[in-house]
Write a structure and sequence with these properties.
By secondary structure, this protein is of the alpha/beta class. Helices cover 40% and strands 18% of the residues. The protein is globular. It binds thymidine-5'-phosphate (TMP) and magnesium ion. It is an enzyme of class 3 (hydrolase).
Length: 285
Amino acid sequence: MSKNETDIIFILVLKRHQFMVKDPYLILLIILFPQVISDFDMTLTRFAHNGMRVPTTHNILDNRLLINEDCTKKELLNTYYPIEIDAGRSTEEKLPLMVEWWTKVHELLIDQRIRKDMLARAVKESSAMLREGYKVFFDHLAEHHIPLLIFSAGVGDVLEEVIRQNHVFHPNINIISNYMDFDHTGVLQAFKGQLIHTFNKRQGALSHAAHLRQVQDRPNVLLLGDSLGDLTMADGVTDTHNILTIGFLNDQVEERKESYINSFDIVLVKDETMDIPNAIVKYVT
Ligand code: TMP
Ligand code: MG
C-alpha cells in the first residue's frame, strides 16, 4: 500500500470515531523506533459487550472452581471500584485506599488456596474478551518487531492465559504485573514482588521496566490506558523522546471527560475497538 493510501485510510478511521486529539502532529513523532506500552484490564480487554460488563483478570477468578461462595471479594469491588474512578477525589486521596483494596483481595485469594491447574479452565469458562481488532494489533506489532510492554495491576498469571487462549502471546511481549507464587503442590501461597495497583505504576515502571533492554532501545512510545494512573507507565524508559497517549474513557464519561482530555493526547469515548491504535501503528510502521 502506498503512503498516500495509508494516509487516506488513517484519516477515515480517525473520522469514523468519536475522539478528541490535542495535537495531530504528535502521531508523526513516534514513527522512529517506536514501542507500545499498554495497560491490560479495560484497555486491551473490552469494558462491556452486549450491555454486560466484561470481566477483569481479577473478576475471572470469581469462579466456583477457584473461590467459595462466601468469599467477600465482590463486596470489596463494589466498595472500592467507585473510589478508583471517582472524579471528585484526588490521586493522593485514592492511593491508600487502593493499597487497602489490593492487599485485602490478595489476602482473600491466598485464603482461598487457589490452584494453579484451574486457572486455564477459569479463563476458558469466563466471558473475558479482548477489544475488537485485537488480533490485528498484536499480530502487526509482532510482525514489525515492535516491543509491546503490557503493564497491569491485575493478575499476571490470568492475563497471560487470556492472551494465550486468544493466540496472540507473541515473542515481542513483556509483562509487568502481580504474579502468583504457588507452593510445590500448586496452591497459591503469596504474590511475588512489590504490589502493583492502579496508582503506583510509576514505581513498578522504575523498578521493572528499567531493566528491560528492548524498552530502553525505543525512545518513542505509544501509551494506552483507561485510568489516569496508567499515564506513568512509561516512566521506566530512561530516554523517552516522544510519548503519544491514548485514553479509553469507558465509565463515568461526563464526570471524567475534562480530566481525560487534559491528561491524554487522544481520548476514546466508549469505544470498544482497537481501530484508532491500529490505524496509528499501521501508519507509523
Ligand atoms: P489493569 O491495571 O490491568 O487495568 O488492572 C487493574 C484493574 O483491575 C482496575 O481497574 C480494577 C480492577 N480490579 C478488579 O476488577 N477487581 C479487583 O478485585 C481488583 C483489586 C481490581
Ligand atoms: Mg485498566
